[in-house]
Amino acid sequence: MEHHGNKVHWDNILKKYRMSETNEIIDDLRKVKCAHCHQYPTPEGHDHCLGTLKNVDFACCGHGGKVHKYVKQSDGKCFHEDEVNFNLYK
Question: In this predicted model, what pLDDT tens digit does every residue of 11-25 receive, in sequence order?
């Protein structure tokens, strides 16, 4: 699994995520820096370069890794790649 461009995996014993490259325990996924820009996500969990987006649960700009840009709105609707216009959520 990737999170902000970093490979992470679930530790079934500790019930926490770990950084795959270093095996470091991740206490809070919101504290993982982007692998591309090395910035922390917003408090809401959105990519730093996007800022805070209204009515959005999750968002990815796509620059950090293999995951393409997407938005998951608070109402459950999801949009990917060319469907995404981040300006609509500012």
Answer: 999 999 999 999 999
- What 57-60 contacts at long range (C-beta under 8 Å, 24+ apart), as own/partner pairs, is 59/86, 59/89, 60/4
Pair 58, 72: CB distance under 8 Å: yes
Q: List phi, psi (to 5°) of 36.
A: -90, -55
The candidate with the shortest Cα–Cα distance to 79, out of 89, 69, 87, is 69
Number of domains in the chain: 1
- Look up tokens 């790649």; give the residue: 81
Structural domain harbouring 72: 2-89
Whole-structure pTM value: 0.61
Contact 60, 44 (CB under 8 A): no
Where b means 16+ CB within 10 Å and e means fewer, 41-52 reads bbeebbbbebee
Cβ neighbours, 10 Å, residue 2? 14
